[in-house]
Amino acid sequence: MTSRIVxxxxxxxxxxxxxxxxxxxxxxxxxxxxNAIAVRQLANELGGLPTATADAADPDSVRNLVGRGDVLxxxxxxxxxxxxxxxxxxxAAGAHYIDSTGEQAFIRRVFEEWGPQARTAGVSxxxxxxxxxxxxxxxxxxxxxxxxKDATSVVVGYFTRGRADVSKGTVTSAAxxxxxxxxxxxxxxxxxxxxGHDLLRHRMPGGRTRSTxxxxxxxxxxxxxxxxxxxxVRVGLGALGAATPVVWALGRVSQEVLRIPGLRDRVxxxxxxxxxxxxxxxxxxxxxxSGCLVTAHASAADGTELSRVVLEGPSVYxxxxxxxxxxxxxxxxxxxxxxxxxxxxxxxxxxxxxxGCASIGLKRVD
Length: 366
Hints:
This protein is an alpha/beta fold. The protein has helices at residues 13-24, 36-45, 59-63, 79-82, 84-93, 104-121, 134-147, 168-177, 218-226, 244-257, 263-274, 284-289, 316-332, 344-348, 350-359, and strands at 5-8, 30-33, 51-53, 71-74, 96-99, 124-126, 153-161, 182-186, 189-193, 199-203, 209-214, 232-237, 291-299, 305-313, 340-341, 363-364. It has 2 domains: 5-130 and 318-348, 3-Layer(aba) Sandwich (Rossmann fold); 134-316, Dihydrodipicolinate Reductase, domain 2, CATH 3.30.360. It has a 7-stranded parallel sheet with strand order 3-2-1-4-5-6-15, with helices on both faces. Strands 10-11-12-7-13-14-16 form a 7-stranded mixed sheet. The longest helix is centred in the first third of the chain and has 18 residues, at 104-121.
């Protein structure tokens, strides 16, 4: 039987964008979700695609989506609530897996819990394969390749161009992320650390400096595998512009308050109960007129900067949909270079990743 791409979560905001990009690549994905009527409607809008019904509350229905050699593409955020059945179904079936998450707790599960299982099963798991966190992996790898073996640290910054606008799913995922343990790569090891622990500084094109708030991302797991000399990997988000330092300071205060016994769990329950699981997002006009910018600089042990890379690309959600479609297409074609939980560079190789990202609009500008 011919292998297929199954897009699970097709009717959500990111799912719809990704379905459109898959079709634009000449692919015929199976569209899947829990609302059969909505899935069929989207399938008809895109030319009569095959469909399936599955619900994360019924793991068997998710397992029935894929078979050996298929690619399961999951956009069912927030992943802390709905993501596990898809990852587990792919491993059990012998299917490759790729998702759109940006949630650190889920990323860690992919690498630490499901990665070894996937290696045994001979399949590849590609988590957070969108704006979170493909561009930073690429920029950092380019900077580290240029810097050579003397580079022991790399700092990555994610920024948006134009007015910031996010989907409801992103809001829910971000709120949940602040309540879960994060991680970082410092002193040559993975450490547990709260999201927003550090305020990072990045020198931008033209010489100005911008700030980001530290986040936990796939770079912390994936880059030290490819560049074993790395002692430090730091990654930050700077979408709030000049307000970023204030948000960072408030976040540090909030984390201290959440140390009050029992408070973190109570707040977590409110977030889960009150915030939407998914929903609408930025308009087509916003996605057409906004963009992203990602920087990375590699340094030696004494702090001397050895190289700097800047990438520019399309809108956050536009890039995510295109990257997911490209990545799923590559997995379907059997070109992944490794199995288990892999990052963008060790999955496809630096040259192939750079070429693939350029083909969807993410290019070096410095």
